[in-house]
Specification:
single chain, mainly alpha, 5 domains, rod-shaped
């Protein structure tokens, strides 16, 4: 079709504006554009007639254009009409033919269509039946799984019940044959899982309650097994020490090899031991049921099946942490001494259970979680121990708790837990424990000394001898004495030995099993304090109090000699209990720790004896210093003193050791010598003559004879013993020898003086010589005839006095 253009006559219309508007309108109509803007513009300008006129003019221009087109195509149109008429005739013929064919087809295809309809209907029915059968089979399978789930739920087999539920959800939920069934499954599956979760949560809660009771029993059993193992070790060490002692004494018999036989340790599991222990006790069966970890593992398995294992792990950890925190509560109404075993057993059982769960729980709890719980627990236990130890004022209480804590450490160390902080607390309070122990021993020692009458101890039976003598190795002979046996010591000695031995055992018990292997130096340090401060100090106070008589002081001195042997036993006993060889302990031996009280006791005895001798020396008032004849048998006081000394020796040799008796006799005779010299120096003696000196010489001979008679008591040679006692009288003997000498001026000869008068003092000799000289008119007339010739002895004595005055 030729392109349509606006007619030229329209372009000739009047007015440039109208022509322009007409041109735009024509372009819009030709291009099929919207004429709305033109209409609105015409009405807006108030000239719709112009628009209408333009539209009419455009229509007329198009009519003429149509006419021209029709004229141009008229022949073609005529031919097309003729073609249509011929086509119409052909169509009518075709229509008739089609009608005949349709009639023939209808008559031929009618039965076939009926068969096809029946086939299609049957096919639809078959398809529906197949779908129904498939749905029925699906429903049967679903119902079977749900019935199995119901049966397992009824039997409380939650895991077996959840498996068919999971199968239903996985295989049949999306393929549900009917929306109703799908809705039912969507409701039932979460309900069953929720029921299983509630059910297993209740079982877990019940298990948490049971395991708390069971943990306490388990901890008690485990700590008890550790205590039994420690007891077996102690018995083995005792047998080994006995064997070593027999070896040292060469008294082992053919059966001694059995002493070293080791008993096989039952290293079975603590949980199994707890169950075995409970099987023999009907009262404990209920508690043992809590040891079953099956409910916990079942709960964990069910939560794994539900896909909630992480949540259950956290839930388990938080609940166990809360349970552990509640276990830390220490009742203020019950003394810790009564509740400490339950407190520590609960914690021990808790971590034994956690160790079992860590090893067999399939990842329910991790090592880091257990370590975190243990760090919390040990920090709390350290805090509780620090607080309780700071309040305790009884050593035995502290020892009981320490022993149980050490057993707790041994028990939990077997499971890999670090217990060093607990042992550090025990070490920190070591000094306090020993201070309390020393305080108790100080009280016991004071009571023992106050209760003793300081008389020799009588033992009527052999068991008394074994208990009071052999058990402390203070016997002087391996031969068992005849009974009744009178011991050389009083009841104080075995009492003190028991106190010290108990102290050693308590000290070793506290120091042992505390992580420190070589603790003998520490035990020895506190043993030195006990002996040096407590025992020595108590005996020293007793001696210095001044309430003892001669017999009591003698018994105290005898006790000290026995205590010296006992001290050797104490250090050996400490070494044996500390597990070190005796040779090492003997290598570090020190001097007698009770030396001060021993010396004080001997000094007291000597002072009392000297005071008693002073009473006898009062009889020296009867001595005639200017006698015409010397006394035939010595002076009276000397006989009294000799009788007393012989009585003293007969009594003392049954009690005092030889060394102590020697020292006492030496001191007594020294005092006698000093008293004799003091007689010559006394102001009451203004002058004396040779007869008086001869009497004193006779007295000295009695004392020297007494000294000779005691020589058989000493283990040394008789001559050495006699000389030692006679040396105590040397000052008096040298003075008498000088006064009886015909040449007293020889005292001035250094050689002679060193040999014969080395114990005499210049001033004493001068004073005594002057008294001897003052009576020369009467005294020295007896040395010769009464003539004008001067006596040589008087002359020598005068020379001595003159020289001594010059020296002084």
């Amino acid at each position: 079709m030729p392109r349509r253009v606006a007619p030229d006559s329209y372009s000739a219309a009047g007015g440039d504006a109208e022509r322009q508007d007409l041109h735009q309108l024509s372009s819009a109509i030709c291009n099929g554009e919207d004429l709305g803007p033109f209409v609105r513009k015409a009405f807006a300008s108030g000239r719709p007639e112009s628009l209408l006129h333009s539209l009419r003019h455009f229509a007329r221009s198009k009519e003429s254009e149509i006419e021209e087109v029709c004229k141009a195509h008229y022949q073609d149109f005529i031919r097309a009409v003729d073609d249509l008429r011929s086509l119409l005739s052909d169509v009518d013929s075709l229509k008739s033919a089609l009608s005949d064919s349709n009639a023939a087809l209808q008559s031929a295809a009618g039965p076939l269509l009926s068969s096809l309809d029946a086939y299609l209907e049957a096919r639809a029915v078959a398809r529906n039946l197949s779908a129904a059968l498939a749905a029925t089979r699906l429903c049967v399978r679903v119902l079977e799984l749900l019935a199995r789930a119901n049966a397992h739920l009824a039997a409380d087999d939650l895991y077996l019940a959840l498996r068919p539920v999971d199968a239903v959800e996985r295989d049949f939920l999306d393929a549900a044959p009917h929306p109703t069934i799908r809705r039912m499954l969507l409701h039932l599956i979460p309900a069953i899982r929720s029921h299983a979760e509630r059910k297993i949560a209740k079982e877990f809660s019940d298990w948490m309650v049971q395991i708390r009771v069971a943990s306490r029993h388990l901890g008690q059993v485990a700590i008890g097994r550790a205590s039994a193992a420690r007891q077996r070790e102690e018995e083995l060490r005792i047998r080994q020490r006995q064997a070593e002692e027999q070896s040292r004494l060469s008294l082992r018999d053919a059966n001694s090899s059995s002493i070293y036989s080791l008993e096989e340790d039952d290293d079975s599991d603590d949980l199994a031991a707890a169950i075995a222990a409970a099987s023999g006790s009907g009262a404990a069966v209920d508690g043992i049921l809590g040891f079953d970890l099956t409910p916990l593992y079942r709960a964990y398995h069910i939560h794994q099946t539900l896909g909630l294992q992480d949540r259950f792990k956290q839930y388990y950890f938080e609940n166990r942490k809360l349970q552990l925190t509640s276990d830390f509560q220490v009742s203020s109404m019950t003394p810790f001494l009564e509740s400490h075993q339950t407190f520590f057993a609960q914690i021990a059982g808790f971590f034994i259970v956690e160790d079992r769960i860590l090893r067999t729980g399939g990842g329910l709890i991790s090592r880091s979680d257990v370590d975190a719980l243990w760090e919390t627990a040990i920090a709390k236990m350290v805090s509780v121990l620090e607080d309780q130890f700071s309040r305790m004022q009884t050593a035995n209480h502290l020892l009981l708790i320490k022993d149980y804590v050490s057993l707790l450490g041994v028990t939990l160390r077997r499971y890999g837990y670090t217990v060093d902080p607990l042992l550090d607390v025990l070490s920190t309070h070591r000094d306090k424990y020993h201070d309390l122990l020393l305080s108790d021993c100080r009280r016991q020692v004071s009571e023992a000394l106050a209760a003793d009458k300081f008389e020799q101890m009588l033992m009527k039976k052999e068991y008394e001898y074994s208990m009071n003598v052999l058990s402390f190795q203070i016997q002087t002979s391996d031969i068992t004495p005849a009974f009744p046996y009178v011991a050389p010591f009083s009841s104080t000695v075995p009492d003190l030995c028991r106190i010290v031995r108990s102290f050693i055992e308590d000290s070793v018990s506290f120091m042992s099993h505390g992580g420190q292997l070589d603790f003998y130096p520490i035990v020895k340090k506190y043993l030195d304090r006990l002996l040096g401060e407590v025992v020595d100090g108590a005996i020293l106070r007793l001696v210095e109090a001044g309430g003892l008589g001669v017999s009591q002081a003698m018994q105290v001195a005898a006790n000290m000699a026995v205590m010296e042997r006992a001290c050797d036993f104490f250090f050996r006993h400490a070494a044996q209990l500390s597990g070190i060889p005796l040779r090492i302990a003997e290598r570090g031996r020190r001097e007698f720790p009770l030396k001060r009280s021993r010396d004080a006791a001997e000094e007291l005895l000597l002072r009392l004896l000297q005071a008693k001798l002073d009473d006898f020396m009062i009889l020296t008032d009867t001595v005639s210093w200017m006698a015409d004849d010397p006394p035939p048998n010595g002076n009276e006081y000397a006989n009294e003193v000799i009788i007393y000394l012989e009585t003293l020796v007969s009594t003392a040799q049954q009690i005092l050791p030889i060394q102590v008796l020697r020292r006492v006799l030496h001191g007594v005779l020294t005092h006698v010598s000093e008293k004799i010299v003091g007689l010559f120096l006394s102001d009451s003696v203004k002058r004396f003559n040779a007869n008086a000196v001869t009497g004193i010489d006779a007295d000295l001979r009695l004392f020297e004879s007494f000294a000779d008679n005691q020589s058989h008591l000493f283990g040394d040679t008789e001559d050495l013993g006699a000389n030692e006692l006679k040396m105590a009288l040397v000052e008096a003997r040298q003075l008498v020898n000088l006064l009886m000498s015909n040449h007293p001026e020889n005292f001035l000869n250094p050689v002679i003086r060193e040999k014969s008068y080395n114990k005499l003092d210049y001033k004493k000799v001068a004073t005594i010589s002057e008294k001897f000289r003052d009576s020369s008119d009467r005294l020295f007339s007896t040395f010769g005839t009464r003539g004008s010739k001067q006596n040589p002895k008087k002359k020598s004595l005068d020379a001595l006095i003159k020289r001594l005055k010059d020296v002084s």
